[in-house]
């Protein structure tokens, strides 16, 4: 083994031991942020991950536990997964007006909202831009009902059958970052990744609110703390790839960022779980 390899293994080993010790003692570990500064980020637990076959008999029980979980590679039957990333697919809907958010890269805040045509947005998103453009929480599926056919999937139907759907949203962008917030309190979120990868940081509804720097009025569910560099308490972390889903239970705080530089596409449904008798 070369000297370089030995050093590399020793380094990986040291990191593993540090993480294990920190986990055992529930200590905080230091990690380096993108800008090179050190930050104190407490250990995050991995979001549990299940496959469709495991879920088939336990779906109700797991949903009603109100704990988050990733559903691995179980939405690959969704036509959007092959259709939406293909170069020209959205051309046919080019003229539809949509809203986008524009903000500086990495800003842990919602962007300024602008209106544009879907065609222009899709062509903007093929370019490397000095700012972030995000078609966030778009009612695209209601505006273009034809697209609803693309997000049909047996498992989506099964999950939504456990409650009543309130609304759905489409998310298309690059290098996106959604700040920490919680959705309307009564609603569970079924989130499906169509293209690219997204990382989620989740915190349970009981997280310490002091220090969250919450907004006012309709922004009182949104924090201006950057949970990617700042420790706000124990949380859960996980990544979804195309074909994966995630359940965000009602009231759970979440911040979401895309991974890599590729076009990223997702869709989600907010639904109210039917209470169990
Ligand atoms: O994908 C994102 O950027 C945010 C998703 C989100 O916040 C949600 O589905 O409630």
Describe the overall structure.
The protein is of the alpha+beta class and 277 residues long. It has a single domain (33-273), classed as Jelly Rolls (Sandwich). 21% of the residues lie in helices and 36% in strands. The protein has helices spanning 3-25, 52-63, 80-83, 118-124, 140-143, 154-160, and strands spanning 28-32, 38-42, 44-46, 49-51, 69-72, 97-103, 112-117, 132-138, 163-173, 177-182, 188-195, 197-203, 235-241, 245-248, 253-259, 264-273. The chain has a 9-stranded mixed β-sheet. Strands 3-13-12-15-10 form a 5-stranded mixed β-sheet, with no helix packed on it. α2 links the parallel β4 (49-51) and β5 (69-72). The longest helix is centred in the first third of the chain and has 23 residues, at 3-25. The chain is globular. Mean pLDDT is 86; it is low at 1-40. The chain binds 2-oxoglutaric acid.
């Amino acid at each position: 083994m070369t000297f370089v390899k030995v050093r590399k293994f020793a380094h990986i080993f040291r990191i593993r031991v540090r993480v294990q010790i920190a986990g055992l003692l529930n200590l905080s570990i230091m990690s380096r942020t993108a800008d090179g500064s050190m930050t104190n980020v407490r250990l995050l637990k991995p979001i549990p991950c299940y496959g469709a076959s495991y879920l088939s008999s336990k779906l109700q029980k797991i949903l009603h536990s109100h704990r988050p979980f990733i559903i691995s590679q179980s939405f690959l039957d969704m036509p959007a997964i092959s259709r939406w990333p293909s170069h020209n697919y959205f051309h046919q809907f080019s003229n539809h007006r949509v809203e986008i958010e524009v903000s500086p890269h990495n800003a842990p805040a919602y962007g300024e909202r602008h209106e544009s045509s879907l065609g222009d947005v899709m062509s903007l998103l093929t370019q490397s831009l000095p700012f972030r453009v995000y078609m966030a929480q778009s009612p695209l599926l209601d505006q273009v009902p034809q697209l609803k056919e693309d997000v049909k999937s047996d498992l989506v139907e099964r999950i939504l059958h456990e409650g009543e759907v309130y609304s759905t949203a489409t998310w298309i962008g690059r290098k996106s970052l959604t700040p920490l917030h919680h959705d309307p309190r009564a609603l569970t979120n079924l989130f499906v990744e169509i293209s690219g990868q997204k990382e989620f940081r989740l915190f349970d509804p009981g997280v310490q609110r002091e220090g969250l720097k919450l907004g006012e009025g309709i922004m009182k569910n949104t924090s201006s703390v950057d949970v990617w560099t700042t420790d706000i308490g124990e949380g859960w972390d996980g990544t979804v790839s195309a074909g994966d889903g995630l359940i965000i239970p009602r009231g759970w705080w979440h911040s979401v960022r895309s991974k890599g530089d590729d076009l990223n596409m997702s869709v989600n449904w907010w639904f109210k779980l039917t209470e169990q008798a």
